[in-house]
């Protein structure tokens, strides 16, 4: 019920050293979903989402001794359940690379790319709480 941290590494550059996190891929935040559909929850879905959030918060508090101090809709994400979405994303990047610009020849800024919507008959993933605290 918490976003998984797969790995981390240090990246050294002109601006110093930066810790990079390799995280579980996610589809979108609840805030983004609510922008698409202002009433995204029926009662059973709302109950399931709240139960998962409360269980995640309980784990953070009792097992990790962490208090989540920034609980909001853009810190609750939907997991990526349809595995073909990653392959489709990579294929699209190969065929049509996203826009990027170079800054002073030392840094590159990449434009974001959205995942496609789940295929017909597939659903968005489960709600997952994002905590930036390394567990």
UniProtKB/TrEMBL annotation:
It comes from the Eukaryota. Keywords: ATP-binding, Kinase, Nucleotide-binding, Serine/threonine-protein kinase, Transferase. One of its GO terms (biological process) is regulation of mRNA processing. One of its GO terms (molecular function) is protein serine/threonine kinase activity. The keyword Kinase applies. It catalyses: L-threonyl-[protein] + ATP = O-phospho-L-threonyl-[protein] + ADP + H(+); L-seryl-[protein] + ATP = O-phospho-L-seryl-[protein] + ADP + H(+). This is non-specific serine/threonine protein kinase. Residues 1-135 form the Protein kinase domain. Its EC number is 2.7.11.1.
């Amino acid at each position: 019920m918490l976003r998984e941290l797969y790995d981390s590494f240090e990246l050294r550059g002109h601006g110093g050293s930066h810790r990079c996190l390799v995280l579980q891929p996610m589809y979108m935040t609840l805030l983004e979903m609510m922008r698409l559909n202002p009433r995204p929850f029926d009662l059973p879905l709302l109950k399931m989402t709240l139960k998962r959030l409360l269980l995640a918060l309980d784990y953070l508090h009792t097992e990790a001794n962490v208090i989540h101090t920034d609980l909001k809709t853009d810190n609750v994400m939907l997991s990526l359940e349809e595995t073909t979405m990653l392959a489709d994303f990579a294929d699209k990047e190969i065929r049509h690379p996203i826009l990027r610009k170079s800054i002073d020849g030392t840094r590159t800024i990449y434009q974001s790319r959205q995942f496609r919507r789940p295929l017909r008959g597939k659903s968005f993933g489960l709600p997952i709480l994002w905590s930036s605290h390394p567990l």
